[in-house]
């Protein structure tokens, strides 16, 4: 049915760059707010960046000026361009899709992709 598939993770040196993508199937992509979250073992999942249906954008303070979120509705795909990467950026990055509803939002998650920043 609904699938969110993240790709693009890997090992990169501090100061390097990486681009993640999240391809969605089974949903009308343009009806969903999209976001990137990340989680380190032993820590809570945190919001990295969000891009809404009308392309309003928010970033976590820790990534402002370094990360860029975007979406291409015609391709049902969201991207996260990550520059000037730091070891603290190491985490599993998850794609999230939410369709607002009055009583019960539709909420979907991808399987995650590992990003490791290390020399």
What does this structure look like?
By secondary structure, this protein is mainly β. The model has no long low-confidence stretch (mean pLDDT 97). The chain has strands at residues 3-7, 10-12, 18-25, 33-39, 46-51, 57-59, 67-72, 77-82, 91-99, 106-109, 113-117. It has no helices and eleven strands.
Outline:
This protein is 0% helix and 52% strand. A hairpin with a 6-residue loop joins strand 4 and strand 5.
C-alpha-based Rg, rounded? 14 Å
Given helix and strand content, the structural type is: mainly beta
Which geometry do the CA atoms define? globular
Question: What is the total tally of β strands?
Answer: 11
Percentage of residues in strands: over 45%
Low-confidence stretches: none
Largest sheet: number of strands, sense, barrel closure:
7 strands, mixed
Oligomer: single chain
The helicity comes to: under 10%
How many distinct helices? 0
- How far from one another are the termini? 40 Å
List keywords for this structure.
52% strand; 11 strands; four-stranded antiparallel β-sheet; seven-stranded mixed β-sheet; 119 residues; mainly beta; globular; single chain; 0% helix
């Amino acid at each position: 049915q609904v699938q969110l598939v993240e790709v693009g993770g890997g090992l990169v040196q501090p100061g390097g760059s990486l681009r993640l993508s999240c391809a969605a199937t089974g949903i009308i992509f343009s009806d969903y707010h999209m976001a990137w979250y990340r989680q380190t073992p032993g820590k809570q999942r945190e919001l990295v960046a969000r891009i809404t249906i009308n392309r309003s954008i928010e970033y976590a303070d820790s990534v402002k000026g370094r990360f860029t979120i975007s979406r291409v509705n015609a391709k049902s795909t969201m991207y996260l361009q990550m520059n000037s990467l730091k070891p603290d950026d190491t985490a599993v990055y998850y794609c999230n899709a939410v369709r607002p509803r009055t009583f019960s939002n539709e909420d979907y998650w991808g399987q995650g992709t590992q990003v490791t920043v290390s020399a």
